[in-house]
UniProtKB/TrEMBL annotation:
GO terms of biological process kind: Mo-molybdopterin cofactor biosynthetic process
Entry's Gene Ontology cellular component terms: cytosol
Chain coiled-coil ranges: none
Protein name in UniProt: MoaB/Mog domain-containing protein
Pfam families per record: MoCF_biosynth
Native source species: marine metagenome
Gene3D superfamilies: MoaB/Mog-like domain (3.40.980.10)
Length: 73
């Protein structure tokens, strides 16, 4: 079986936790999304959350409970 046949496309979400990053300057998040989508995965959502536990828990609970999310990064 070839490597391509073994790979499975998954629905991903990418979470950046930062008090300083924005959509305009989140280069590492953008690079991650670019590489994952180039590998054939589908981006469900990319989100930046301030470094506050309650906000982080809220996003993670939302994504964990979403039937369309396979992987949280």
């Amino acid at each position: 079986m070839s490597d391509t046949a073994k790979r499975k496309s998954v629905n991903i979400t990418v979470l950046t936790v930062s008090d300083t990053r924005t959509n305009e300057n989140d280069k590492s998040g953008d690079t991650l999304v670019e590489r994952l989508t180039e590998a054939g995965h589908h981006l469900v959502e990319k989100r930046i959350v301030k470094d506050e536990l309650s906000l982080l828990k809220g996003v993670l609970k939302e994504w964990i409970n979403s039937p369309e999310v396979d992987v949280i990064i």
